[in-house]
Amino acid sequence: MVEPLLVRAARREPVERTPVWFMRQAGRSLPEYREVRRRLDLFGICRRPDVCAEVTLQPVEAHGVDAAVIYSDIMLPCLGMGVDVELVEGVGPVVAQPVRGLGDVAALRQLEPAVDLPFALESIRLVRGALAPERAVVGFAGGPFTVAGYLVEGRPSRTFVETKRCMYGAPEVWHALMEKLADAFVGYVAAQVEAGADVIQLFDSWAGALSVDDYAEFVAPYSARILAAVDVPTIHFATGATHLLADLAVAGGDVIGLDWRVPIDRGWVLAGADRGVQGNLDPALLLGPFERVEAAAERILELVDGRPGHIFNLGHGVLPETDPSALRRLRELVHERTRRAAA
Question: Span 226-237, mean pLDDT?
């Protein structure tokens, strides 16, 4: 039975070339995706498994990448928990009734993925059925801090004032919320694997806003529960979190995702020799001349030096302004260079 290249790399097994996929590759820059978005919003696409599968598979065909990441949003499970959340263009998730007290936490429903999110699981089944066996299906969940931050703030924040006010001033509320989210996401990622996901990535996008001590006290135990809930490879990713890399690794993840702010060799030392590493080209480089992209990608590969466990990716998501042909050229470059090195 063929195992996907990405799965083998995540386990730090020998591979014939470095696997490549791009965060936020599903949609964003592709014109065929924009055609779909003229008809449906993001949650509307998610609720239509046939359309969601189509959008998820578009970049696999366009870029030739080694994995399909399910088109979704980290706030999708919150819909099943009874949260009134809207994804506002140019803003992000906006929650009608932010969580501020124990009563708000108690009002969140217990998530039952098969009942509350059957469309998401059917999308995974469709993608897995359509995808060649050597390519992986990447499922994901939002990191509990990031999702809790949206729920408490009510919208995206750079300072997380209300979130930290809750953590420090009402820790009983914070921990109750994190327990509820961890319970929900444990079930959600397990259901994704049962539906056909080969790898799970935990996106804790805003965990870098925390100190090392605060991460350990208020977040790590909950992330650890989610990452331990599945027996497939897991990827643990946060941005602006170089100071937390060792702590992210302790919380869990077979692979630690790196953003573009840290050289990949230095990040790997911080993540630990017993982990794989994913990353970490600056996505903004793809807006400039390809010569710079090529030089940066080759520098990453030079620093990795063929070490097992590397998954080539961006240091964050594909920017909407990216020329799709640049992504394909980048994927071809990485495959060519690493195939030659392995020969």
Answer: 98
Q: Residue 340's pLDDT is what?
A: 64
Domains and CATH numbers, the chain: 5-342 (3.20.20.210)
In this predicted structure, the answer to whether residue 32 has a pLDDT above a threshold of 90 is yes
Residues in Cβ contact with 54 at an 8 Å cutoff, skipping those fewer than 6 apart = 36
Dihedral of alpha carbons 91, 72, 66, 259, sign: positive
Taking residue 33's Cβ as centre, other Cβ atoms within 10 Å add up to 21
By annotation, the residues acting in catalysis are 24, 28, 37, 73, 150
Instruction: Give 171-196 pLDDT, tens digit per residue.
Output: 999 999 999 999 999 999 999 999 99
Contacts of 197 (CB under 8 A, 6+ apart): 70, 124, 128, 137, 138, 139, 189, 232
Residues 6+ apart with CB under 8 A from 260: 279, 280, 281, 282, 283, 314, 315, 316
Backbone angles phi, psi at 58, to 5 degrees: -50, -50
Other beta carbons within 10 Å of 207: 28
- What band does 343 get if pLDDT is binned at 50, 70 and 90? very low
Predicted TM-score (pTM) of the model is 0.97
Cα 111 from Cα 122, distance rounded (Å)? 17
Give per-residue burial for 163-172: e unless 16+ CB within 10 Å, then b: bbebbeeeee
Mean pLDDT for the chain overall: 96
Residue 342 has pLDDT above 70, yes or no: no
